[in-house]
Each structure stands twice: as C-alpha cells, then as structure tokens.
Amino acid sequence: MPDSSVEGIARSYIQAVGSHNMEALENLLGEDLLATFAGTTLDKAGWTTAIKRLLPALVRNEIREVFSAQDRACVVYDFITDTPAGAVRCIELLTVNADKISEIELVLDRAAFAPVNEALKARMPPAQ
Q1: Which residues of 6-42 are buried (b: 16+ CB within 10 A; e: fewer)?
Q2: In terms of pTM, does the model score above 0.90?
Q3: Cβ atoms of residues 80 and 13 within 8 Å
Q4: Helices 44-54 and 110-123: crossing angle, nearest 10°?
C-alpha cells in the first residue's frame, strides 16, 4: 500500500522521477500544481514536460534526506546522470494537499547542472 503521508508522497515523487515512471508521477501531482525553478513558475503540464526533457540523461535519483512538517516536505537528493555532471545535489520543497503535490520549488546549483543541459542539447538531432 502506498504511503500517503507527506513524507511518503515526497519520497514516491522523487522515486517516480528517478525511475522514469511518468504514470506514477502524474498520479502524485495535483491538477493545480505550481512548480518553481530559477524564477520560472510552471503548471503541471509544463513541469512534466520539463521532467521528460531531462529523462534521457537521468540514471536515477538517490534520496539523502527527507524532512516534513504538516503539509510540507523537503527532499535532498542526488540527481544521478550519465553526463559529465555525474551526480547533482538537488533540493525540492513540496506542499501536499489532499494526497497530491500542489507546490514544488526546486533548488540546485545551476553551474553544476550545466553539463546535463549541454549533454542533452548535443544528443538532440539537428533541426532540418
């Protein structure tokens, strides 16, 4: 039985992304999701599109710590890639309402993550 606690939902979300399980991910995100990264706010469709773009480089996520209080969780994890970046430490702050994630804030070192974006760009076929 899935863990419906705030911490359990947060862990399930990071694990779903790490295992490329988009169906599980869709089920964990609320329809009203607002996700923030680097000053940009995305809705559920925008967030899942952004995640899908990263999946070709993502090997797995390794959760380091999860902290939770009331409806909020903080997950510290390594985003393990097959790029020169290797593992990039990430922090996601999540808000859970009615067993769905309603808010996400992603924090990471953008300089450490840059090789991931460069590798993904190099893997894309040239535009014709």
Answers
A1: bbbbbbbbbbbbbebeeebbeebbbeebbbebeeeeb
A2: yes
A3: no
A4: 70
